[in-house]
Structure formats: C-alpha cells, structure tokens
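Worked example

This section walks through a single chain of length 394. The input is the sequence exactly as stored; nothing has been trimmed or padded.
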Amino acid sequence: MHALPHDHTGARIKRLRLERHLTQKALSDLSQVPYGTLTKVEQGVTAATPYVIAAVARALRVEVATVTGQPYAAELRADELDVLIRPIRESLDVYDLGADPDLSPRPHQLISDDAEELLVSVRAGEIKRVASLVPGLIEEATTAAHLAPSRERWLLLASLYRTSYDVASKLGYADLATLSLARMDWAAHRASDAVVGGMYRYMRALTYLRSGEYRTGQRLIDLGLSALGQAEEGRERSVLTGQLHLGAAVMAARSRNADSAEDHLVEADRIAAETGEAVDVHWLAFGPTNVAVHRVSALAELDEYGAAAERGAEVRIPRDWPASRRSHHHAEVARAQMWTGDLEGSFRSLLAARKAAPQQARYHLTVRETYSGLEAARRQLPDSFLSYGSWLGA
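Given that input, the structure is written out below as tokens.
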C-alpha cells in the first residue's frame, strides 16, 4: 500500500524523458547520472538525490521544479497558502512606483519591529503567518522609503524582501524567490550596504545550488566575499563571511569537489571559533553548530552517507537555535540514515523534522524524497508511517 501519490519524482523524470523521445541510456549519458541509478529512480525503487534531480533537469532543459513537482499545489490549497502568494507578488511589483497616495506609513521603528518579528517567525517555521503579513509590510515600507529616503528605510525594505524570499523558497515558488532577491538587491544598492549586498549574493547562490548551476553559484559566493571585503570590520562582517563559506562548502560538495568543500568548512570553523554562536546576526544562525550541520550536509552531498549519519547523530543543537534550521538538519540526517539502511532511524528523524517546524517540513523536498525512498524500501508500512505520508499530501 502506498502513502504518497503515484506521480513521484522518478515518474515525472520518466514522463519528461519519454516526451523528449529519449531512452534511459540516452538520458543517463546526457545527465552523467549512472544508468542503474536512473532506472531505479524512475521505478521509484531509489530516492532521487538533489544532485540527480539537478543533473536530470539540466539534461532535459527544464527547471528543477518541473522535475520535483513544486510548488505542491494540492497541499498549498488545502493549507490555504496558495491564496497568499498573489499578494506577495503584487507587493513586489510596486517597488518603483513611488509612494502610494492611499497609504500613510507608521513611524519607522514600528514597521522595523514588525519586520524583525517576521524574521523571527520564519525561523520558527510559522510560514503561513509570515506569508499573510509580509505583503502589507512591504507596501508600507515601500511608501515610507519613497516619501523620506534614508539608509535605514532602504535596509528595512531589503529585509522585508528577504522575508518574501524565505517564504517563496520554502513553499517551492522559485520564480517568486528570484524576484524577491532582485528587489532585495535593488533596495540594498540604495542603502549602499556591503553586508546586505553580500547576503544577497549568498541567497542568490543558493538558488543556483538548487538548480544545479554550481559554477555560477560559486561565482556569486566569490562576489559576495569580495563585497564583504568592503564592509566595516566586526562581528557582523565575520558572520556573513562565515555563512558564505558554508554555502560554498555545500556548493563544492554537490559538484563533487571534496577538497574545496573541506577548505571552506575549515575556514568557516575558524571564523565560528571567533564569533561563537551568532543566531541573531541577520538570523543566519551562524556559529559552531551551523558549521557542524553544514558538514553533515556536505558529506551527504558527497554520497558519504555513513559519515553524514554518524556526524549528524553527534550534533547537539542549542535550545535557542531556530526551529526551521533544526527541522532542516533532521531532514538531512534522515536522508543519510535512509541511504545507510537505517530505516527506523530515518523515520524518527523525519518525525523530528515535522515536530520542529511542521509547515516547513510538509513542503521540504528532502523530507518528501526521503519518505518516498523509505516507502519503496519497506514492505510492511505501519499506521504511523502511512499517517505521515497522508500528512505530506496523499
């Protein structure tokens, strides 16, 4: 008995391949995905890794979202999240129209406090709440910035654009995430802030990581590091620099460059020893814990699943760590455990990912692909397992 819909990632790959009149051998050659891996993924016997998904998407010349089936429309509709996307798009569209004559913005500090609260809510996994509030705040901050331009007001607007990026990327709207980042860059330029410029390049690099464009992603990382070199020395710059190295480590690992990944992790670890845990600096959660978590991710991307699962079990998450990051880590560990054959442990980690941030986990690609892999590996599915599949969207 299956808990997930028949239209899994492997089935979509097969359909896209047949639409292009390609054999499995031809797609294997084009994507450089081993033939045996591709056939098992198409059959639903093996879960599709992010590397395989990106490689196949490039070979078929489609977006990664076309292969993964994102955004998950039925689930979004059931959670009443789909209706919140259009207002976000509309708020991003008015960026250059000047002040809205029908709006009377509140004092800057009140808008800033609300924007900061949304950043905290994103890290708590409260996606629906944030999605419902961010459009109005963007429109209010846009009008305020045009009425009385200042560095603080443009930075506030850049922060809100970042929040719209967070919502869009977590719900699988890649185009909206990209648009949000373009607006963030636009506002950051007006604020002339090198740190925010570096953060923009880090987040943009992540979009290229997801699409498998590793060379472009690394170029953005390099540009981000260069931009941060112009920022004032201090803990803020160090944190952003360290976070860029973490992004570069995962980028290198997914492109199968283990030495480069290790170099970036070592540098990030050095910086983290100086900054300590810096959860609240731009809410990037940088610090020794984040370095340890990214090491697990890098090992998994290098297909060193045994080492990733072992390292993942050793990570001790601080109590004040964001729920969204905690959930993401549990999902990464679940993936590694699945590939090592620890099916029970993998399912426990999936449960932990849901407990930490249920709204995020429901739309998390790694959670869904790992569940699909567990489903294929298990002949007897307990009720708790089937219930989890139903929650994901059966």
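What to look for: The mean pLDDT is 93.
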